[in-house]
Amino acid sequence: MDSNRALPESDAHGAGLGVPAGLFAALVVAVLALLGIGARYYARGDLNLIHSVLSLFFSINLLVCYWEVCLFFRRDYIERRTGYWRRRRRETGLAPAREFLASRVPLTRLLSPTVWADAWATYAQYDGSYADRGSFGFNVDIGNDFVTPVPTLFLYATYTFDFLPSLYAGILGAMVFWQWIYATSLYCVSFFVAERHTRISRLETFIFVIVINSFWVLCALLGLYVSVRLMMDGNYSVLGY
Q1: pLDDT at residue 16 in the model
Q2: What is the separation, in whole angstroms, between the first and last Cα of the chain?
Q3: 9 found inside a domain
Q4: Nearest to 95 by CA among 70, 123, 74
Q5: CA-to-CA distance for 148 and 18, rounded, in angstroms?
Q6: What is the C-alpha to C-alpha distance for residues 92 and 124, in angstroms, rounded to an integer?
Q7: Does 13 fall in a domain?
Q8: Is-contact 159 177, C-beta < 8 A?
């Protein structure tokens, strides 16, 4: 099979034994989040809402970081594949994102960078930045991949087991969460300033730009609050410890 193809050009859904792309992504996030939530419960016998929300956020970011690796290393493929999904939408009238998430990924290719590069090729139907390596949207996501995975893992671990002094955890969190707030907010501004919202429907703008990015900003604001409390309180009481 050609390694430069994620799903057959003639059938975006694919065929045969496999797992729907959207289901697999959801399972990865669920497993990563439950590892932290379950570890806390096993170690301390309790649950905490803030810890659970941030565990979910960290898990989503780790998955997105992997997708951003795919964005970087398959950028040529994404630029070509964007045209396929554009034609596919004209021919079928189906939403590219929904069709991709419903497509079945063969079990042997669940971690294939080329498969998950298609997530960006479909998203490029709503924001063409991701098929343009010179755009802010493309490069800010590449930056997230190179900068945040290690801090994300450290914060996830110390929020679960409080192994770092709270001051250090607070400083690290303040830096990373502020970066997420600033970069995400600036991305949204660039989207509207470039008038990309005029090329898609209001519903698509609401779902794929406002809702998704609002979740990112709101979780980062929560994380920033936690970081400030960690520094000021000198302990992990904000997380229920």
Answers
A1: 56
A2: 52
A3: no
A4: 123
A5: 31
A6: 17
A7: no
A8: no
Report, in this order, helix, strand and coil percent for the chain, each rounded to 5: 75, 0, 20
Angle at Cα 4 formed by Cα 112 and Cα 115, nearest 5°? 30
Model pLDDT for residues 82-107, shown as the tens digit of each residue: 999 999 999 988 889 999 999 999 99
Query: Is 4 a domain residue?
Result: no
> The domain containing residue 221 runs over which residues?
19-239
DSSP state of 19: E
Runs of H (alpha helix) within 74-95: 75-92
pTM reported for the whole predicted model: 0.90
User: Helix (H, G, I), strand (E, B), or coil: what is residue 105?
Assistant: strand
Model confidence pLDDT, tens digit, residues 116-162: 999 999 999 999 999 999 999 999 999 999 999 999 999 999 999 99
Instruction: Measure CA 87 to chain center.
Output: 26
Residue 14 is assigned to a structural domain of this protein? no
Q: Per this entry, what is the length of the chain?
A: 241
Q: Measure CA 237 to chain center.
A: 28
Check whether 171 has a pLDDT greater than 80: yes
Distance from C-alpha of 19 to C-alpha of 23, rounded to nearest angstrom: 7
- pLDDT at position 4 over 80: no
Q: Look at residues 56, 47, 67 and name the one whose alpha carbon lies nearest to residue 123.
A: 67
pLDDT given for residue 17 in this prediction: 78
Chain mean position to CA 206: 17
Q: Give me the number of domains the chain comprises.
A: 1
Give whole-number Cα distances, 141 to 126, 146, 231, in Å.
16, 9, 29
Contact of 48 with 159, CB cutoff 8 Å: no
Nearest to 131 by CA among 117, 113, 143: 117
